[in-house]
Design goal:
The protein contains ten helices and 14 strands. With 364 residues, it is an alpha/beta fold. The chain folds into two domains: 238 residues, Type I PLP-dependent aspartate aminotransferase-like (Major domain) (Aspartate Aminotransferase, domain 2), CATH 3.40.640; 101 residues, Aspartate Aminotransferase, domain 1, CATH 3.90.1150. It starts with 7 loop residues before the first strand and ends with a helix. Bound molecules: pyridoxal-5'-phosphate. The site of pyridoxal-5'-phosphate has 11 residues, from helix 3.
Length: 364
């Protein structure tokens, strides 16, 4: 497959995957790795699939430098299930958790944790339109909090932590759905990491969960079977039928990352893409970037047009020019370009060139 006819895909997730990976998936559809079983038809109890899931776990461990005593799980239900499941497992009765609320996803996380225990907002950026993430020192953690939860990259508003939030010595829990493997994330500094795969890791339907020994030690007895991390740890993510397709694709994406300079290579490419686009946004007042400069996301870049009435025109013309997925999230409006690992720099170059042309056609 040449990729001819594919748009430059800036969708926020599911998102563009490297064409090499898409081709590998296509090849595996009728026959997974010479087994004679098609990728969509193979049993999760087969040796060939056991090799796939083992490989996926090993690659995740290598690429993300996961400590040996941490567990790696491939679950279903999306990051949205993790909002509740994390709290169910590690907050427990009478527990307290503090949250840095930097956008819609962290709002959901704190709401779901509140069903389990005492979930408190330690910092809330809603009043200023979620334009930034907090600096260390902008918030206080309760001295008796059990952990601090944050969202490393705010997919909707285009902000990102470029530092490790100070948790005042408390365990850190992170929703890293939209920047895992695209930015540096120090796993050993966290006790629980979760991420939907559909941005940097693969297709939708797989959720990566990484658990420290501390997180495991917090889990009580009698939790609903499927919501108990112990169930999935004890069965190698195969207590029930896992998303075999998604795990295969995730393994192939991780192999692609490894072939292309590992996490450092991914970060370098993501920095280059983001700086190209932010340079254009800063060039002219025709564009109004949303995020404050110190909090700008490398993964999701959000902006308005100074003349908002031109936004539908921008979206129509960009789509006609083969640039897809640029509509801002419905809660924010405007334009959003998501540039995960699978997005090549050529797509961003095309976008920037389109933007310059658009300004010259529609600007004063
Ligand atoms: C940061 C973040 N958290 C959570 C979610 C929800 O993920 P899911 O749709 O996998 O439940 C998303 C989805 O875009 C996200 O970007």
């Amino acid at each position: 497959m040449t990729g001819a006819g594919r748009v430059h895909n800036f969708g926020a997730g599911p998102a563009v995957l490297p064409l090499e990976v898409v081709n590998e998936v296509a090849e595996a559809l009728p026959d997974l790795m010479g087994s004679g079983f098609g990728l969509l038809e193979v049993s999760h109890r087969s040796d060939v699939f056991q090799n796939v899931i083992d490989s996926a776990e090993e690659r995740v461990r290598r690429v993300l430098s996961v400590p040996d005593d941490y567990h790696v799980l491939f679950l279903q239900g999306g990051a949205s299930t993790q909002f509740y499941m994390t709290a169910l497992n590690i907050l427990g009765d009478g527990g307290k958790a503090d949250f840095l609320v930097t956008g819609g996803w962290s709002q959901k996380a704190v709401k779901e944790a509140g069903r389990i225990g005492d979930a408190k907002v330690a910092w809330d950026g809603s009043a200023e339109g979620f334009k930034s993430v907090p600096d260390n020192g902008d918030y206080n953690i309760r001295s008796d909090a059990d952990y601090l939860h944050y969202t490393s990259n705010n997919t909707l508003f285009g902000t990102q932590f470029h530092h490790l939030p100070d948790s005042e010595g408390k365990p850190l829990v992170v929703d890293a759905s939209s920047d895992i493997c695209g930015t540096s994330l120090d796993i050993p500094s966290h006790d629980l990491v979760y991420a939907g795969a559909q941005k940097n890791l693969g297709p939708s339907g797989v959720t990566l969960v990484i658990l420290s020994p501390w997180a495991m030690s917090r889990i009580g007895e009698g939790l609903p079977t499927m919501l108990d991390y112990k169930t999935h740890v004890s069965k190698g993510s195969m207590f029930n039928t896992p998303n075999t397709f998604g795990i295969f694709v995730l393994d192939r994406v991780m192999a692609w990352v490894e072939r292309n300079g590992g996490i450092e290579g991914a970060i370098e490419r993501n920095r280059a893409k983001a700086s190209l686009l932010y340079r254009e946004l800063d060039r002219t007042a025709f564009w109004v970037p949303h995020a404050d400069s110190g909090s700008r996301s490398l993964m999701n870049v959000t902006w308005r047009l100074a003349d908002e009435s031109l936004e539908p025109v921008f979206l129509d013309e960009s789509a006609a020019a083969g640039l897809g997925g640029l509509k801002g999230h419905r809660s924010v409006g405007g334009i959003r370009a998501s540039m995960y690992n699978g997005c090549p720099i050529e797509s961003v170059e095309e976008l920037v060139s389109f933007m310059k042309g658009f300004e010259s056609r529609h600007g004063q």
